[in-house]
Write a structure and sequence with these properties.
It is found in: Nucleus. Its main location: nucleus. This is Putative transcription factor bZIP family. Pfam families: bZIP_1. One of its GO terms (cellular component) is nucleus. By secondary structure, the chain is of the alpha+beta class. It has a domain at about 1-45. It has one helix at about 45-125; strands at about 1-10, 20, 25-30, 35-45. Strands 1-4-3-2 form a 4-stranded antiparallel β-sheet. Strand 3 and strand 4 form a beta hairpin. It starts with a strand and ends with a helix.
């Protein structure tokens, strides 16, 4: 047997009688003091096991409810990390293209300058 004692404060009235209420799995026995009612609940082993099962189910349910957002967050982080990797790869490729284009542009400008010199030297000859 398990005994649970609960304290209830009464406001502006006093309970004059005490009573014992019997249930299938436990009994409730209120005891009267001046401004406080003390209730003792006697719970059978079977009822205690039922309460323990309910508590275990509730704890499992709470764990699962907490686990789902953590898993969702981990999945979102994985997706975001994948996107970051893709964008970094694209950024690297684009920077390589920019470097190549700048080198090509410099070569073309050098060729253009050489051609301008040839044109001006040919104009002097004519």
């Amino acid at each position: 047997m398990v005994y649970i004692i609960c304290y209830f404060t009464t406001l502006n009235f006093t309970i004059l009688a005490t009573a014992t209420v019997q249930f299938k799995s436990h009994s409730i026995k209120p005891l009267q003091t001046h401004h406080q009612t003390v209730t003792t609940i006697v719970i059978s082993d079977k009822a205690k096991a039922l309460l323990d099962d309910r508590k275990k189910k509730r704890m499992f349910s709470n764990r699962e409810s907490a686990r789902r957002p953590r898993m969702r967050k981990k999945q979102q982080i994985k997706v975001l990390q994948y996107q970051v990797n893709q964008i970094q790869s694209l950024n690297y490729q684009l920077s390589q293209k920019i470097t190549y284009m700048l080198e090509c542009n410099q070569q073309i400008q050098q060729q253009n300058a050489q051609l301008k010199e040839k044109v001006s030297s040919l104009q002097l000859i004519l």
